[in-house]
Structure formats: structure tokens, C-alpha cells
Amino acid sequence: MRIIANQIPRDLPANSRITDLLTMIEARPPYAVAVNLQFVPKTRHAEYVLHENDQVEIIAPVTGG
Fold it and tell me: How far apart are CA 19 and CA 48, in angstroms?
């Protein structure tokens, strides 16, 4: 199945979860994840099943001031 992660098309096996995507792209914490503009808490990443054409954003915090 194809999803879009941070505006880059990615191919994942059917029934992949957010954790599968994070592993694929070697994401390093800290980060927040939104799927189709809806925040997904870290506690749900392992159970949240992605679907064809989902738009996923992995967002790193910005520091400074």
C-alpha cells in the first residue's frame, strides 16, 4: 500500500502500523505523529493501522527562543 509520509510517497505492506513506518524511515525521538491531520498519541503508534493514501506527518519539536 502507498502512504505519504512528510510529503514523500512510501510503500508499506498492508496492515502496517505507525511503528512500522517509523522503523522504515529510522525516525529518532522526540517526535509527534499526525495521520490525516489528526494527532496520534505515542501510546497508540503500535496499534494504529495505516491505510492506503493516508497522509502521515512526523514532526520534530522546535526549540529556541
Answer: 8
Could you tell me which residues come within 8 angstroms of residue 61 by beta carbon, excluding any fewer than 6 positions away?
30, 31, 32
Q: Which three cell numbers stand for residue 46?
A: 503500535
Residue-wise pLDDT tens digits, 34-47: 999 999 999 999 99
36, 40, 51, 65 from 44: Cα distances, Å: 15, 7, 15, 31
Three cell numbers, residue 15 = 496492515
Report yes or no: 21 and 10 within 8 Å, Cβ to Cβ: yes
- The two most distant CA atoms of the chain are separated, in Å, by 42
Query: Considering the entire predicted model, what is its pTM?
Result: 0.92
